[in-house]
Design a protein that fits this description.
Elements lengths: L7 H13 L5 E7 L9 H6 L4 E7 L6 H13 L3 E4 L10 H9 L1 H9 L7 E7 L5 H9 L17 E4 L4 E5 L11 H10 L9 H15 L3 H6 L10 H14 L11 H13 L11 H43 L1
Parallel strand pairs: 1-2, 1-4, 2-3, 4-6
Antiparallel strand pairs: 5-6
């Protein structure tokens, strides 16, 4: 499957953020704790260069608790200030103000030395669609200050929110980036609902989810849907057999008793998103080490190949000179 979604309003939002970033002291980025790496927008790293950075692992109540701390440590090791939050319940939200203050200590000290006292810290809050920014802000502020919804793209324009005399918050629309170089990133974004479902083949998406679950959470499908544990190939064909069994078990049927694969697919995706399958994380910090090693290996191989090309050119030039000498 090919995943890509970058509507016009996202390009406009990015331009707007580029204009406003000069006013900002700290950038707060929400990521989804189920896919912390894939839900972190790489464009923000370029946009927020030289700014203090805070990462909030939101929806940590939906992810596998075993990996939440590991992801927190992963980002802290890269220099971010990090917190685990559950915006709906408010868990972890109160500590965010202290983390923002800590991230801006250097800025506050510079202001103090210049004789500027009590100038509010200006924070920009960013994140991909459907990551829960509006819900977080409402919980952070303590009142319904922004619109919320369970569809990507509810926030369409920017808005400043006065949190206190010490902090001002600039909300921004959720944006993705123009091209997913790694389609597994697009897959994970589609699974959590950050890509418009109307452009996704949900049946194929459910097959990808089944393959992930069979690898990392092998008991989940058996426990949830009451199907017998099936030993099938770890590919789309094997996942399709599992989906068919779930459709039959849950009476997702077409006329004539044939399994309704589309209906069963939608059910599985909805169950994942509503935590009915349990607390599930779809990517792990160890994956990032593997990605880094592959990237390093690829760069080394490219360098070697380039050197070989240069050698070949030299050899060709030498042979050409030899030919000229004979002719002379």
């Amino acid at each position: 499957m090919n995943f890509q979604w970058y509507p016009g309003h996202m390009a406009k939002a990015k331009r707007m953020m580029q204009e406003d970033i000069k006013l900002i002291d700290v950038v707060i980025e929400l990521v989804d704790a189920r896919i912390p790496y894939s839900s972190k927008n790489p464009d923000i790293d370029v946009l927020a260069k030289n700014k203090s950075r805070v990462i909030l692992l939101n929806k940590c109540d939906m992810s596998d608790q075993r990996y939440n701390t590991a992801w927190k440590e992963y980002f802290e090791a890269k220099g971010y200030f990090v917190a685990l939050v559950n915006s709906k319940s408010g868990s972890g939200v109160k500590q965010v103000q202290d983390i923002v203050n800590k991230a801006c200590e250097a800025k506050i000290e510079r202001d103090r030395r210049k004789g500027i006292l009590n100038r509010p810290v200006r924070a920009m809050i960013v994140g991909i669609p459907n990551v829960g920014k509006s819900t977080f802000i409402n919980s952070f502020v303590g009142k319904a200050s922004t619109k919320t919804g369970n569809k990507p793209g509810v926030t369409k324009g920017k808005q400043w929110i006065r949190l206190s005399k010490f902090t001002e918050l600039l909300d921004t629309p959720g944006i993705l980036w123009p091209k997913f170089e790694d389609q597994s990133v697009g897959l994970r974004l589609a699974l959590i609902g950050s890509i418009n479902d109307n452009i996704i083949d949900t049946t194929n998406l459910s097959l990808e989810l089944i393959m992930i679950l069979k690898k990392h959470y092998p008991e989940v499908l058996t426990n949830r849907y009451g199907i017998e544990k099936v030993e099938v190939e770890d590919n789309l064909k094997g996942a399709s057999k599992v989906l068919e069994k779930i459709a039959l078990k849950r009476s997702c049927l077409l006329k004539g008793g044939e399994p309704d694969m589309d209906r069963a697919a939608n059910m599985i995706i909805d169950d994942f998103r509503s935590i009915k399958l349990g607390n599930i994380t779809l990517e792990f910090p160890s994956d990032m080490k593997d990605k880094a090693e592959v990237s390093k290996s690829n760069k080394k191989e490219i360098k070697v190949n380039t050197e070989n090309v240069k050698t070949d050119i030299i050899e060709v030039e030498e042979k050409t000179e030899d030919v000229k000498t004979v002719e002379a």
